[in-house]
Amino acid sequence: MPASISHPATSKAKLQALRKKPVRKYLSLEMAVPGVFLLSASIVMAAVAVISLFVFRSGIPLIQKVGLVSFLTGRTWDPSAGIYGILPMLTGSLLVTITALVLGVPVALAGAVFLSEFAPITVAVVLRRCIELLAGIPSVVYGFFGVIVLLPLLRQIFGGSGFSVLAGAIVLAIMILPTVLSVSLEAIKTVPQEYREGSLALGATHWQTIKGVVLPAARSGIFASFILGMGRALGETMAVIMVVGNTTRMPRSLLDPVRTLTANVVIEMKYATGDHQQALFATGIVLFLFIMALNFAARLTFANSRRSK
Amino acid sequence: MTLAIKIATKNLSVYYRQLQALKYISMSIPEHSITALIGPSGCGKSTFLRTLNRMNDVIEGSRVEGEVLLDGQNIYSHGVDVSEIRKRVAMVFQKPNPFPMSIYDNVAYGPRIHGLKRRGVLDEIVERSLRAAALWDEVKDRLEKSALGLSGGQQQRLVIARALAVRPEVFLMDEPASALDPISSGKLEDLLFELRRDYTIVIVTHNMQQAARVSQYCGFFLSGEMVEFNQTKTVFTNPRDKRTEDYITGRFG
After folding, report:
1. 3-state secondary structure chain A
2. Which chain A residues contact residue B90 at CB under 8 A?
3. Which residues of A touch B114 (CB under 8 A)?
4. Which of A76, A137, A166, B45 is 20 to 30 Å from A147 by CA-CA measure?
5. What CATH fold (topology level) applies to the domain B5-248?
């Protein structure tokens, strides 16, 4: 410690003064603080590392046994016969998530534009409270809403059981609304006022200004909100299980029942053992990599669209 | 020197909620000339400028009384198309505000929102506007690059090119050189001289030398009132009002 406070320009007397007790106390606190923060940061990293390690170690053996390709592209999931193909679940997750984004994102974005550009202050405040409330509702309640309200409605309109990709997507669309809306709202709000004034001063209307300058300027933040929404939709489990029907067959349309990757793990975990249990961990690995790959792909397309602009 | 009047204000007052920021301004701005507005901060000169293309409409709680006549037509009368007014009366702000897009798209922005789509025509407008803003030679090889990569002075000329592309008649400039270094500022002044032949320019400035150099007419604002408006020469050499004299000789403000 003394080495760190010695400095060629420091006189001996000053050095003495620095070594006096209160100073040293202060210095040691000063050095302890980064350590504390480093420790907290390490805990986060350790958690990520331990969870990944655990999931991968428990799942990889089965993937090796079945073969990666047949595990991913197998259309049959029959643990009792030792057949593990997760293509139906992969398709299910993808279909539910994409449909949820298609339904939810336009509404969320339009809401964000309304709140930032058009809404009078009182309306904006009330609406923001509602959105926060929406974000706080437990997912099982969304699922319950789906079962009680949505399923009968779908039965009435389309016939069948109602359990379907569409039901899951609608529930998820509502669930991702607060995330997508509030993140893109923040992005829109950080667009400098000078851009808006510059556009208006050229004779652009309010809407032309939003479309031509505000949204393009906020696009990276808006894009981040889509990714967050997508992650939420892909990872959501409870609400989805309650309304999608959970069959392991390949869906042929949005009205067919499906099972998602997350649902697969939850539904069978309580009784699975041996290979079966490993197959569920392997499902977890796929989900994990899937989310990472989607994020990556989304970022890539975004980077491309930006370059070509 | 008798010039046609481009913009005239009559008893123009602006209120921000209860506060009266401008008090009964009546002035006539001659065509094809540069009119400088000087005065200490908060004197209302920027507010005045923003009334001339209705940019004050954007500020919540602001209210305008009186008339602003553009070629004899009151821009505050009922049923006036604000977009059309702002197209004719362009504005350049204190801080250069190019949009976060390419140089080309910045200049093409105005024509595009007014319905022009043909690439050939746009190319022509972009080149002509950039040439008129004395920026073409510096950017012609990087039109597709982001405008945010330009220097402050280039950005300010780009913003002027962007405004030129919608073929305005009047340019309002709110301290356009205050964020620029002396060399960029000099280039901007040269550009103003060029533009004067075809456009009517109203410029707000804190820089008295600049006002004396570039303008033919000069208005002195103080606490929301227009103290004096005359030919620049007269204002600077033989001011009528004691307060104008005090201000331009640096005794207050």
Report:
1. CHHHHCCCCCCHHHHHHHHCHHHHHHHHHHHHHHHHHHHHHHHHHHHHHHHHHHHHHHHHHHHHHHCHHHHHHCCCEEHHHCEECCHHHHHHHHHHHHHHHHHHHHHHHHHHHHHHHHCCHHHHHHHHHHHHHHHHCCHHHHHHHHHHHHHHHHHHHHCCCCCCHHHHHHHHHHHHHHHHHHHHHHHHHCCCHHHHHHHHHCCCCHHHHHHHHHHHHCHHHHHHHHHHHHHHHHHCCHHHHHHHECCCCCCCCCCCCECCHHHHHHHHHCCCCHHHHHHHHHHHHHHHHHHHHHHHHHHHHHHHHHHHC
2. 201-202
3. 203
4. A76
5. Rossmann fold (3.40.50)
Q: Are A275 and A65 in contact (CB under 8 A)?
A: yes
B17 band by pLDDT with thresholds 50, 70 and 90: confident
- Cα(B113)–Cα(B11) distance, rounded to whole angstroms? 34
Whether residues B113 and A212 touch (CB distance < 8 A) is answered with yes
Question: What does the block give as tokens for B77?
Answer: 């009368």
Q: How far apart are CA A10 and CA A16, in angstroms?
A: 10
The beta-carbon neighbor of A200 closest among B58, B99, B162 is B58
**Domains assigned to chain A:** 2-66 (no CATH), 87-308 (1.10.3720.10)
Residue whose entry in the numeric block shows the structure tokens 């997507």: A169
- Whether the predicted pLDDT of A6 surpasses 50: no
ipTM for this model: 0.89
- Smallest Cα distance from B4 to chain A, Å: 25
pLDDT tens per residue, range B186-202: 888 999 988 988 999 99
Sign, CA dihedral B123-B129-B132-B137, equals negative
pTM: 0.80
Are A201 and B160 a contacting pair, CB within 8 Å? no
* Mean pLDDT (whole number) for A156-179: 94
Paired tokens of B95? 């801080």
Give the pLDDT of residue A1. 42
Query: Are A201 and A128 within 8 A, CB to CB?
Result: no
Question: How many angstroms separate the CA atoms of A245 and A241, rounded?
Answer: 7
CA distance B228 to B237: 13
Q: Residue A203: which of B84, B95, B102 has the nearest Cβ? A: B84
* Ramachandran area for residue A143 (φ above 0: left; ψ -120 to 50: alpha; else beta): alpha
Q: How far is it, in rounded angstroms, from Cα B92 to Cα B90?
A: 7
For the segment B39-87, what is each residue's pLDDT rounded down to a tens digit? 988 888 999 999 999 998 888 888 999 999 999 999 999 889 999 999 9
